[in-house]
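DM between two lab members

TW: hey, do you still have the Succinyl-CoA ligase [ADP-forming] entry open?
JB: yeah, one sec
JB: this one, 169 aa:
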Amino acid sequence: MLTILDSADKIPDRKPGSSRAEDNTASVNGAGLAMATMDIIKLHGGTPANFLDVGGGATAHQVTEAFKLITSDRKVQAILVNIFGGIMRCDVIAQGIIMAVRDLDLKIPIVVRLQGTRVDDAKALIAASPLKILACDDLDEAAKMVVKLSEIVSLAKEAQVDITFQLPI
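TW: and the structure you got?
JB:
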């Protein structure tokens, strides 16, 4: 398992920025949802490249650092953020995602599914943001969306078509 603060030590054969050739989708989520999130991505034809456990006390800055780690792998075609905020506040996650997209100038699709503590505040932050972040309430729909978007990005790269992910789709 990879964490925000200790990224390479827990899985020695997977270093930051590394993946297998078939990996194409990254997942950022709490540890309790990690396996289900990866399974549903696989169910819909995707291949999770990695996952991060943001833990119960992550800050917006730590979420941004997690995105730096995930996007250091050039094979990642899309990111699915799946959070059930019990202790972790969804608005803090949303702030971190917005910061990451803005500060890292991310050009890949980001699908966000947030449920739990302060979710309405999180949704308002994402909706008010002019950035390229797709919010989805249903995990199944979010997984389908991230897999399809990943396929589109992958096909464009194979065809050497320079695309930039923009909303609306």
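TW: got it. Residues 139-158 form the longest helix (20 residues). The domain at 23-158 is CATH 3.40.50.261 (Rossmann fold).
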